Amino acid sequence: PVLLIDELDRTDEAFEAFLLEVLSDFQVTIPELGTIRAPEPPLVILTSNRTREIHDALKRRCLYHWVDYPDAARELQILRSRLPHAPEALSRQVVSFVQAIRKEDLFKAPGVAETLDWATALVELDAVALDPTLVIDTLGVLLKYQDDIQAMQGGRAKALLDEVRSSAG
């Protein structure tokens, strides 16, 4: 059996305390029902987006595995599979731009979900290629913090777009 607990960092400390019993004894105690034991220990997978620190006692009971952003080829493959109707040139530019913007000093770099959301918005706007105005006008789909958006609006987004265009050309 597999138990997936997604985005643990979005839960509260009471839930983490509950998980300590689950992970150490593979059982849960419910006052109205008593203790329920797993017939066999499950494989437990916890995910976190690092929005807050997970308690050390819980981390000690886990093996840690970091999943990095995909490389450009893989991200393009993901985008194509989710938005097969997107223009090819736009898809390539979107992925290249997102890959470049992740190297910037941002509070929160965009994830694959933001890449897909941005590409979807651009397709809905009938875009076939990125241009500076379009990028600036849609940064709020890609970046989720105003400080990050402002940092990119000061000419940095255009410079990144120029880099993307020159490396593709």
Automatic annotation (TrEMBL):
Gene3D superfamilies with a match to the protein in the record: P-loop containing nucleotide triphosphate hydrolases
InterPro entries to which the protein is assigned, alphabetical: CbbQ/NirQ/NorQ/GpvN, P-loop_NTPase
Highest taxon of source: Bacteria
Name of the protein described by the UniProt record: ATPase
Source organism of this protein record: Methylobacterium aquaticum
